[in-house]
């Protein structure tokens, strides 16, 4: 069973400006069915509204997130969990004054992100 140390995986640029992202676990790192990543969003940053063909779970680890899931809007804090079912539109935004961080999990398949 592989151990991935926090210090062994560097952050790179995220898919959206003012974000940093790293993939901690995926098939390239020995996983058979899981992808786990971490995203840091600077204040004022918002991911575009999107869906996936698979479900995605996110855990807020730092800061405050504004989340749209389907037609509902939520304010989430560290420890709160989001389950975005397959095909359901969702977006995360950092409306605070400090960086917001979260972990994301999904099945280790090619994830198709569709902006809506």
Assigned CATH class: Mainly Beta
CATH homologous superfamily designation:
Jelly Rolls
Q: Tell me the domain tally.
A: 1
CATH architecture: Sandwich
For the biggest β-sheet, the strand order reads 1-2-3-10-5-8
Strand content: over 45%
Tell me, briefly, the overall form.
globular
The radius of gyration over CA amounts to 14 Å
What structural class do helix, strand and pairing data support? mainly beta
* Strand runs, count: 11
Unreliable stretches covering 5 or more consecutive residues: none
The overall pLDDT, averaged over residues, is 92
* Termini separation: 38 Å
Fill in the CATH topology.
Jelly Rolls
Helical segment count: 0
Element string (H = helix, E = strand): EEEEEEEEEEE
The biggest beta sheet is recorded as:
6 strands, antiparallel
Helix content: under 10%
Summarize the structure.
With 116 residues, the chain is an all-beta fold. The chain contains no helices and 11 strands.
Explain how this protein is built.
0% of the residues lie in helices and 48% in strands. By secondary structure, it is mostly beta strands. It has one domain (11-115): Jelly Rolls, CATH 2.60.120. The strands form 3 sheets. The chain has a 6-stranded antiparallel sheet with strand order 1-2-3-10-5-8, with no helix packed on it. It is globular, with a radius of gyration of 14 Å.
